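> example.struct
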């Protein structure tokens, strides 16, 4: 039984399903819930870490699609500070840059905007991210685009906290003189050139789960701004500041009049793109470079030191890529605030055998390599899945300004921290811990809550998926057993034997893409890969399994629907269905399957085990051109679902036309008037004294966009989330069939969230 299926491919959805027979509903009330992450630990690209220079233990992290976090020193965990961003503003969940006021630990600024085609804003807080004010800005941001780990683009004047500068990707340099409430473009700044990343860098690194608008080269623009604090005095604008532009030509500029005018720094190296600037307390400026802005490729790089006092540039690159057996670049350079001659550097895209971590105690004159087999230890205990993932995309490295022993670096799946790095000076091993407590940046692609076994199974982009035996701990086995996928994109379990589960996924990229499906007979503990795939399988698509577990129906991406009764030894095309049509199984009748052809305005049914499909008598207006898909995290514009344990009970959830119900196998549908938009629908345990399963809906009810529950088959709805718990885009909603009120849902970058009714967190026992 599958609890949430796309019924069309691409962006075609139902605009109107049929003349509505309406069910009147009362305005939605609200009900208190407590919210938690289903713990995985990390999982996505942490693009930056910023320490506050004046308050011990205070630091922030930014991610490409999962918002921003503040480190809670007392609780030894990360605290999400952007969960208040709702579905209407989902593009703000990507954090392009973070800036802190060095003289006021309470102030934090976020540059928010995931893609340059969406809205962007500067968010400001005077209480360390507990609350924010917002200024929409005309310049674009791309927190999940090329060069997203570069930085920091946003900077606070260390002598005058009213002043901030922001380096944009496409629109030049901007200045605010009122703590980001208003912005003015600095027209005197040079006409920045767009770097030309490779095709791989011009799209999201998480395709297909995060779609990007195209493959043309992106402008990366001004990537870093730093001030020279000693050039000014408190209470007045700092005269000297630097700005680095992501271009292989002239790329470093200096202002001596608080940003009014700019000139190129003389004698600077060219041929590479700067990605980080680091200002040293002794007045030195350090820069890391790559041929490309990253992160998908970087084929050359360097590290340089610039002395503004005499204008001398010094190449301090630890290992030159041209002298190596492979191409690579440099991700970041960090300076120890207590020992300015101590530096840390990471390589980038040094794939064989891994990236490198270098340390210098003499300003880059010589280096030691920390990551060798006999001098480094990794602790994966907080997230066992990380043991199978080599740290990569090490785009940021920072040294704790209050503790020279602590160094942190970011990766494509989280943050690593070392607390004894100074021991490396004497040749001692360093020890690294996966520091992702509370930081959950994954993109779930499928969620199941079966009536027995683990309460939750997940398909997760880039990490395959997990059986969650304990929602409060990262899965001990580190993921699904058997063949691992890059993405598990769809799952389904049988109505009669819920221990039998199928999943479809993909691995590899481009022509190396691998499409696979597996079946489990023990509730997801172990998996067996199907014997083969349907012909011409490009992507995972959708998968279903009959109520008795004997028939599997798989519609790979861009393909026809096929069925097998021998676990993939033979595949037969389902007759009567066009390409790309998703199929769902009836949970009671093993011979019955359903599909919806939006182009023809038809609901189709099979009563012979998916051998053939015929239209029902329901007439649905065709929808040939409707942009219902959301850019990367919300799936297609509509879903077809079957109600657990009920034969022929169907729901159609449309992102444009709302919610419809059929109790007669799709022969006729009834529209729910109160529901204007339905993004995702799921089923949970029935309320006390009710027989029909609880409904959970991410959508718009009576004009309010939120997360809702109905205990009476959609007659009445209550809102169950609030303004501080919106999590960007909510998708893959499903309830728990064993715990009334429990709901699970996926997000576009904040991982898997689950909530419980009445403010009570319930410990689920698997059985």
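> example.seq
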């Amino acid at each position: 039984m599958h609890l949430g299926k796309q019924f069309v491919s691409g962006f075609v959805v139902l605009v109107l399903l049929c003349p509505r027979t309406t069910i009147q509903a009362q305005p939605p009330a609200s009900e208190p819930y407590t919210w938690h992450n289903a713990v995985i630990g990390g999982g996505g690209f942490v693009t930056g870490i910023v320490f506050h220079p004046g308050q011990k233990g205070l630091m922030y992290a930014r991610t490409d699609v999962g918002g921003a976090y503040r480190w809670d020193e007392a609780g030894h965990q990360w605290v999400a500070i952007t969960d208040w961003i709702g579905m209407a503003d989902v593009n703000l969940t990507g954090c392009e840059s973070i800036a802190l006021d060095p003289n006021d630990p309470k102030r934090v600024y976020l540059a928010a905007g995931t893609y340059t085609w969406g809205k962007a804003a500067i968010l400001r807080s005077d209480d360390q991210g507990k609350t924010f004010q917002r200024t929409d800005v005309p310049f674009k941001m791309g927190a999940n685009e090329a060069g997203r780990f570069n930085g920091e683009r946003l900077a606070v004047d260390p002598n005058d906290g009213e002043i901030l500068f922001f380096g944009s990707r496409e629109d030049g340099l901007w200045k605010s003189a009122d703590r980001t409430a208003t912005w003015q473009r600095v027209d005197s700044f040079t006409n920045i050139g767009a770097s030309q990343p490779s095709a791989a860098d011009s799209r999201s690194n998480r395709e297909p789960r995060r779609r990007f608008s195209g493959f043309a080269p992106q402008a990366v623009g001004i990537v870093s701004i730093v001030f020279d604090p000693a050039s000014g005095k408190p209470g007045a604008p700092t005269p000297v500041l630097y700005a680095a532009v992501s271009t292989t030509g002239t790329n470093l500029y200096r202002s001596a009049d608080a940003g009014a005018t700019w000139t190129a720094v003389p004698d600077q190296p060219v041929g590479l793109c700067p990605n980080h600037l680091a200002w040293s307390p002794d007045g030195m400026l350090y820069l890391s470079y790559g041929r490309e802005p990253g992160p998908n490729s970087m084929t050359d790089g360097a590290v340089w030191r610039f002395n503004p006092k005499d204008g001398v540039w010094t190449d301090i690159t630890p290992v030159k890529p041209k002298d190596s057996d492979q191409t690579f670049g440099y991700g970041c350079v960090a300076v120890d605030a207590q020992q300015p001659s101590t530096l840390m550097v990471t390589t980038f895209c040094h794939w064989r055998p891994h990236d490198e971590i270098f340390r210098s105690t003499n300003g880059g004159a010589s280096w030691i390599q920390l990551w060798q087999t006999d001098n480094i230890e990794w602790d994966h205990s907080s997230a066992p899945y990380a043991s199978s993932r080599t740290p990569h995309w090490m785009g940021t490295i920072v040294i704790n300004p209050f503790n020279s022993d602590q160094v942190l670096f970011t990766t494509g799946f989280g943050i690593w921290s070392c607390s004894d790095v100074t021991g490396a000076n004497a040749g001692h091993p360093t020890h690294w811990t996966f520091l992702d407590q509370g930081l959950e940046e994954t993109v779930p692609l499928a969620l199941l809550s079966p009536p027995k076994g683990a309460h939750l199974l997940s398909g997760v982009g880039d990490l395959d998926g997990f059986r969650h035996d304990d929602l409060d701990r990262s899965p001990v086995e580190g993921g699904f057993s058997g063949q691992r996928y890059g993405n598990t994109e769809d799952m389904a379990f049988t109505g009669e034997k819920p221990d039998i589960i199928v999943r479809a996924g993909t691995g590899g990229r481009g022509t190396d893409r691998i499409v696979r499906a597996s079946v489990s007979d023990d509730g997801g503990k172990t998996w067996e890969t199907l014997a083969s795939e349907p012909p011409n399988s490009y992507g995972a698509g959708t998968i279903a399994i009959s109520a008795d577990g004997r028939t599997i129906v798989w519609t790979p991406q861009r393909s026809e629907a096929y069925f097998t009764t021998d676990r993939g030894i033979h595949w037969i095309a389902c007759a009567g269905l066009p390409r790309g049509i998703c199929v769902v199984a009836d949970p009671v009748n093993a011979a019955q399957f359903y599909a919806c052809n939006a182009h023809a305005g038809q609901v189709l049914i099979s009563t012979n085990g998916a051998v053939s499909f015929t239209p029902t008598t329901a007439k649905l207006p065709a929808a040939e051109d409707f942009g219902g898909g959301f850019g990367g995290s919300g799936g297609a514009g509509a879903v077809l679902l079957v109600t657990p344990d009920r034969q022929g009970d169907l729901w159609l959830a449309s992102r444009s036309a709302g919610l419809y119900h059929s109790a007669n196998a799709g022969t006729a549908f009834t529209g729910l008037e109160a529901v204007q938009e339905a993004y995702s629908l799921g089923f949970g345990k029935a309320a006390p004294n009710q027989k029909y399963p609880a409904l959970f809906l991410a959508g718009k009810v009576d004009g309010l966009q939120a997360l809702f529950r109905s205990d009476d088959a959609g007659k009445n709805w209550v809102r169950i989330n609030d303004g501080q718990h919106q999590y960007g885009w909510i998708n893959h909603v499903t309830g728990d069939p064993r715990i009334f009120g429990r709901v699970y849902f996926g997000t576009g970058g904040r991982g898997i969230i689950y909530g419980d009714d009445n403010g009570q967190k319930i410990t689920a026992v698997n059985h």
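> remarks
The first strand starts at residue 5 and ends at 6.
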